[in-house]
Design a protein that fits this description.
Layout lengths: L2 H24 L11 H10 L5 H14 L3 H6 L2 H8 L6 H16 L6 H5 L6 H12 L8 H11 L8 H13 L6 H15 L17 H5 L15 E11 L3 E6 L10 E2 L1 E5 L15 E11 L3 E11 L10 E5 L10 H8 L2
Parallel strand pairs: 1-6
Antiparallel strand pairs: 1-4, 2-3, 2-7, 5-6
């Protein structure tokens, strides 16, 4: 073994042991860490994919209370799952969750290998590694945003994390850092370290147990790491909603595939390519009035601006075939996007 290789091995060993010691004193107490039930762990991982712990926690508890087993979730309808998911966003996660629950039931139980776990819809390398190590003690390294940040800073890696090269490099490094046992605890340790200690903004470098070996701290590059290539193009959209109120009833339709909010319900919609003062023919109808204008809603790839109108009429207007009439008080039984929920609150 060369002197450089020996030094790297020593450094990585110290790194892992230090994280484990830190975790024993500072790790977060989370309910899904108090079980080895793969269903409960899988559910938490799916919820937390694009959601902070403080928001996702309540959703996890509600899902576990309503559907305490994967069989119960598999027996639910997609509409029920989407309704329970309302407010979390990224609704493909909910649809994949429901589909995967039925996969698991068809398999006869939760798969216990990484390949088996990765065969579930909506489960990638990170989620499979998390479930595998937490529930089954598999020697799999997790690499999420927290892990990217900790590794890039500590080892001074400037390879962009959103490139193929970067993903391979960080995955290989993460695997090399796994201890000889307690894989799940180590994975939780490095993720918590990124969430609590080595945070995106204002990391606690002066009280960090890894400060002496941290390359970014020594070189003054803490704020510059990790590196991420800018590839995101943000699209602007303008939506005009018309809430039709007719003798205690209202009209909604289910959004189709290939766009945001697939499978969720919304009132009558007109979308304009460029924001304008146009409101279609509604403004000419008696009983139409503006309720809210220019309501902004920001998604990862899109910025949406919405106007909201109320149309009170005694006769049902002719609408496209995919619209259904429901009692106004029953709208809470349907999964709706957060933006629509916000607009309805203006009523």
């Amino acid at each position: 073994m060369t002197k450089k290789a020996h030094k790297m091995t020593q450094t990585t060993t110290d790194f892992s042991l230090t994280l484990m010691r830190w975790f024993r004193e500072n790790g977060r107490e989370l309910p899904w860490r108090e079980t080895r039930d793969p269903y409960a762990i899988w559910l938490s991982e799916i919820i937390l994919q694009q959601t902070q712990v403080k928001q996702g926690w309540a959703y996890w508890e509600r899902f576990m209370q309503r559907w305490p087993t994967v069989e119960a979730l598999a027996n639910a309808t997609e509409d029920e799952v989407l309704r329970e998911w309302q407010g979390l966003g990224y609704y493909s996660r909910a649809r994949n969750l429901h589909f995967a629950a039925r996969q698991i039931v068809a398999m006869g139980g939760f798969p216990q290998t990484l390949e088996g776990i990765k065969s579930l819809k909506g489960v990638g390398d990170y989620t499979a590694a998390a479930i595998g190590s937490f529930a089954f003690g598999l020697p799999a390294a997790v690499v999420d945003g927290n892990v990217y940040r900790v590794l890039s800073r500590h080892f001074g890696i400037e390879t962009p994390i959103n490139t193929t090269e970067g993903k391979k490099e960080f995955q290989a490094l993460a695997e090399s850092l796994l201890p000889s046992s307690d894989y799940g605890a180590y994975n939780q340790a490095i993720m918590d370290f990124g969430a609590i200690q080595c945070t995106p903004q204002s990391p606690k470098c002066m009280v960090c147990p890894l400060q002496e070996s941290c390359v970014a701290l020594r070189s003054g590059k803490v704020d510059a790491l990790p590196v991420k290539q800018k590839t995101l193009k943000v699209k602007s959209r303008h939506l005009i909603y018309l809430y039709v109120r007719c003798q205690g009833m209202t009209a909604i339709h289910r959004r189709g595939e290939g766009d945001i909010w697939q499978g969720l319900y919304e009132p009558l919609l007109v979308e304009t390519g460029v924001r304008s003062q146009e409101t279609g023919d509604w403004s000419q109808e008696t009983g139409v009035r503006l309720i809210a204008k220019g309501v902004k809603h920001v998604l990862t790839h899109q910025v949406i601006t919405a106007d909201f109108y109320l149309w009170e009429t005694d006769e049902r207007p002719t609408l496209p075939d995919d619209y259904i009439w429901i009692k106004e008080e029953d709208i809470d039984n349907y999964g709706i996007p957060r933006l629509v929920d916000k607009l309805l609150s203006f009523l």
